[in-house]
Specification:
The radius of gyration is 44 Å and the shape is globular. It has a domain of 167 residues: Muramoyl-pentapeptide Carboxypeptidase, domain 2, CATH 3.30.1380. The protein is an alpha+beta fold and 295 residues long. It has 6 helices and 7 strands; from the N terminus they run ααβαββαβαβαββ. The strands form 2 sheets. Strands 2-4-5-7-6 form a 5-stranded mixed sheet, with helices on one face.
């Protein structure tokens, strides 16, 4: 009995100690982990993002159209782009992309004029070529006299006066409105046919019959189409054609742009045929009615 009593007495403190330890553990859990566990019915909030407001950018103002500086052709003449809407044009003398390296005076607008009779004949040529899938490409038509004089001045200041014998004329049929420089392109692509040399190659390689193979065939195809409607080729330039007209035709100097000096009022720049002279690279455009020159 004494042994049993002793065991009972010792067991009470042990049970008390266990109860105290359990209570302490519950208190610790309540202050730490338990507080970190969300209730099962409380969903974890999703992170939110804030998109800053986008400032409204107004549409840009449309660019102002370039001023219309076209001169009207002389009476009895036509603008080829209106008379033959499908014809292609690339007026190089309006730009530095020509053998002189600068725009020519008189070409302030990249126009292409002819007198009506040769223009009608050219329209017939275009119709014939279109039936075969081709189109004419016009490089130059009427040329103001000042433009021709600009070519002469270039030859003189660059010591190439030999070109004045057969290639650069001091007075040109182009000034009369019945002469044209042109080539042929594929209508579907706009690619020029192989003519053996670029337009305005001023040497014997450009003589119409001085080619072989496809280039010669294309030159002769163009010549046949032009000759069929009254045009005649200049044998030293495969691109150059003139249309015979009755009467004594004038060499005209009407500029293509209305801001350039009118016919009869233009004067050549001082010293422009002297070595070292630099022609202007752009035109000094001004409202129509104000006489200007290239700048």
């Amino acid at each position: 009995m004494v042994g049993a009593m002793t065991i009972l007495h010792l067991d009470r403190p042990l049970r008390a100690l266990s109860a105290l330890s359990a209570l302490t553990l519950l208190l610790v859990l309540g202050c730490t982990g338990a507080a970190q566990v969300p209730a099962p019915d409380s969903p974890t909030p999703e992170p939110t993002s804030v998109t800053p407001p986008v400032a409204e950018v107004p549409d840009p103002e449309p660019a102002a159209p370039p001023p219309d500086v076209r001169n009207a052709p002389p009476e009895g003449w036509v603008d080829l782009t209106e008379h033959i809407p499908s014809v292609r044009v690339d007026i190089r003398y309006h730009t530095p992309n020509n053998f002189t390296g600068a725009p020519l005076p008189g070409y302030g607008h990249p126009g292409a004029w002819l007198q009506r009779a040769p223009a009608d004949a050219l329209k017939a040529v275009q119709t014939d070529l279109e039936a075969k899938g081709y189109s004419l490409l016009v490089y130059d038509a009427y040329r103001p006299l000042r433009g021709t004089l600009g070519m002469v001045a270039w030859a003189e200041r660059t010591d190439q006066e030999h070109l004045l014998n057969g290639y650069i004329a001091r007075r040109s049929g182009h000034n009369k409105g019945n002469t044209i420089d042109l080539s042929v392109v594929e209508m579907s692509t706009g690619d020029e046919l192989d003519m053996g040399t670029p337009w305005d190659t001023l040497d014997e390689r450009s003589h119409t019959r001085n080619a072989t193979g496809e280039a010669l065939e294309n030159r002769l195809m163009l010549r046949a189409a032009m000759h069929a409607h009254g045009w005649r080729n200049y044998s030293k330039e495969w691109w150059h054609y003139s249309f015979a007209m009755k009467g004594d035709l004038r060499h005209r100097d009407v500029p293509y742009a209305c801001f350039e000096p009118a016919e009869g009022t233009w004067t050549a720049p001082d010293g422009w045929n002297q070595p070292g002279f630099q022609m202007p690279m752009t035109y000094d455009m001004a409202p129509c009615g104000a006489d200007q020159s290239t700048k």
